[in-house]
Amino acid sequence: QKEVEQNSGPLSVPEGAIASLNCTYSDRGSQSFFWYRQYSGKSPELIMFIYSNGDKEDGRFTAQLNKASQYVSLLIRDSQPSDSATYLCAVNNNDMRFGAGTRLTVKP
Amino acid sequence: EAQVTQNPRYLITVTGKKLTVTCSQNMNHEYMSWYRQDPGLGLRQIYYSMNVEVTDKGDVPEGYKVSRKEKRNFPLILESPSPNQTSLYFCASSFMTSGVNEQYFGPGTRLTVT
Q1: Mutate to test the interface with A, among B25, B103, B104 (most CBs of A within 10 A)
Q2: Percent of chain B with pLDDT over 90
Q3: Set of chain B residues whose Cβ sits within 8 Å of the Cβ of A97
Q4: How far, in Å, are A62, A80, B70, B106 from residue B2 at the CA level?
């Protein structure tokens, strides 16, 4: 069974801090990796994707991938209350598999 | 405006009454997919399609059917809905470029089967 695991949280950080979200996956054939943000009652929206080992930065967001450890993470720098949402990790090998999500709360 | 649309957005129906949820995208995407989202279980893929007339099962295909006769449309069919199919359904689409699959999601359809 191909699995994508995330800590469900809730993860609470103060405004301005770094939020660190983690994800592990079981399918070694996975080719690309995604982070989605989902506000309550809304559809997921893509934040970042990564498909090579290492770091990828986009504004306040950094995705990190380690295929040997089957681990992908998302760092959010200078967290804002508007970042409060559920963050979904997704892994692609033709079929897409999502983790159950980590709920993040950024406190003012 | 580039978008994925789903209809209806909300649906309450009874057990056994066939229904179709439509999904359409205007971005000329090859890949389309259906998911259901349930509390504590996250998003689970029902079916996906890599192009016209090409469909494949995802994680939870039982009780569902799909078709892909045109590139822009990917309807989800429940031939005989049951209460355990009560869920929030999302359609998504993307290009298939170099193995990367950045999916864009529709607004969701909340289905209740009584």
Answers
A1: B103
A2: 82
A3: 45, 59
A4: 26, 28, 18, 11
Q: Which of B91, B106, B112 is nearest to B36 (CA)?
A: B91
Q: What length is written for chain B?
A: 114
Quick check: A71 contacting B, CB < 8 Å?
no
**Chain B contact for A34 (CB, 8 A cutoff):** yes
pLDDT, averaged in runs of 10, over chain A (108 residues): 83 96 93 93 92 94 96 97 96 85 95
Whether residue B42 and residue A98 make contact (CB cut-off 8 A), yes or no, is yes
Q: Which residue has the tokens 């995604």?
A: A34
Closest CA relative to residue A46, chosen from B55, B35, B101, B51: B101
Sequence-distant (6+) residues with CB within 8 A of B28 are B71, B72
Q: Is the dihedral of CA A94, B34, B89, B98 positive or negative?
A: positive
Residues of B in contact with A7 (CB under 8 A): none
Distance from CA of B16 to the nearest CA of A (A): 27
Write out pLDDT tens, residues B35-61.
999 988 889 999 999 899 999 999 899
What residue has token string 């359809």? Answer: B109
Q: What pLDDT digit, counting tens, does each position of B63-81 carry?
A: 999 999 999 999 999 999 9
